[in-house]
Design a protein that fits this description.
Largest sheet: 10 strands, mixed
Mean pLDDT: 97
CATH superfamily: Valyl/Leucyl/Isoleucyl-tRNA synthetase, editing domain
Number of strands: 12
Bound molecules: ligand A2H
Protein name: leucine--tRNA ligase
CATH topology: Isoleucyl-tRNA Synthetase, domain 2
Family: Belongs to the class-I aminoacyl-tRNA synthetase family.
Structural class: alpha+beta
Strand content: 15-25%
Shape: globular
Number of helices: 8
Number of domains: 1
Oligomer: single chain
Length: about 260
């Protein structure tokens, strides 16, 4: 665990259509989807990039919970994350974190989702093997234009859809231009991945370097080229986009 607290923006990504396998698993646990809004909760450090979401990643190896968040809202995340939320007054009952149902990431893959601010109205849940169970919520929203991890994972999914048991089209949404920087143009992550010749999501050292370069350039040199804060510096736009998402009940602050 990190010594310094990390503040995340938790993005509420609504599940709009469940795969048959998931429906079966939920009905076996007598979890009735009727009248409920179920959200994948993705922890991000880059709320200003949410216009460019192209899918939501879960780990096929993680067991997630579906937790009652009050007002007929249910959250999909790790138990660890919901427990933390319950002590941050983000849930109905402080310290209560019993799941209403449990579901493996592997059966959520292929679900249709609606991600706030994304230029794409309908996206899919896809697998990412490098998602860590002990960080954030265990759910990662994909922004391939600005996240080197997300970009290289999307390429891998497009190259091996059979292996991942997905449809290639689910992983084929184009990166969206969100931020322009002097060094990398409008698709920071793609440019850096190509310059550093990163070939695989398992290329740990090169990816760590790519992440560092992308984060610094976007934050200190970037200008928004999309959305309500188009033309503003990323430094200025970031807290504003975050505040807007929170005000519209599409996100909340989650600390760990
Ligand atoms: B970021 P930190 Cl555009 N396992 O969001 C692996 N990665 C995780 C995770 C987990 N359990 N939980 C969150 N993350 C990712 C956007 C983004 C992110 C962009 C660019 C860089 C970037 C879209 N994905 O992160 O270790 C999430 O991806 C660069 C590190 O707490 C989250 O922000 O510093 C970030 O890692 C949190 O990483």
């Amino acid at each position: 665990e990190a010594v310094n607290p990390q503040e995340y923006t938790a993005i509420k990504i609504k599940v709009t259509e469940w795969p048959e396998a998931a429906q079966k698993v939920l009905s076996e646990q007598s979890f009735d989807l009727n009248g409920k809004s179920v959200y994948l909760i993705a922890a991000t450090l880059r709320p200003e990039t949410m216009y460019g979401q192209t899918c939501c990643f879960v780990s096929p190896k993680i067991e997630y919970g579906i937790f009652d968040a009050g007002n007929n809202d249910y959250y999909i995340c790790t138990e660890r994350a919901f427990k933390n939320m319950s002590f941050q007054d983000l849930t109905p009952v402080r310290g209560y974190y019993q799941a209403s149902a449990k579901i493996s990431g592997s059966v959520i893959i292929g679900a249709k989702i609606k991600a706030p601010l994304s230029v794409y109205p309908e996206l899919r849940v896809l697998p990412m093997e490098t998602v860590l169970a002990n960080k954030g919520t265990g759910v990662v929203t994909s922004v391939p234009s600005n996240s080197p991890d997300d970009y290289i994972t999307a390429i891998d999914l497009q190259n091996k859809p059979e292996y991942y048991k997905i449809e290639r089209e689910w992983a084929s949404f184009e990166p969206v231009a969100i931020i322009e920087t002097p060094t990398y143009g409008t698709v920071t992550a793609k440019t850096i991945i190509e310059q550093l010749k990163v070939k695989s999501p398992k290329d740990k050292d090169a990816l760590a370097q790519a992440k560092e370069l992308a984060y610094k350039e976007d934050f200190y040199q970037g200008v928004m080229v999309i959305g309500k804060y188009k033309g503003e510096k990323v430094e200025d736009a970031k807290p504003k986009v975050k505040a807007d998402l929170i005000a519209s009940n599409e996100a909340f602050v989650y600390d760990e």
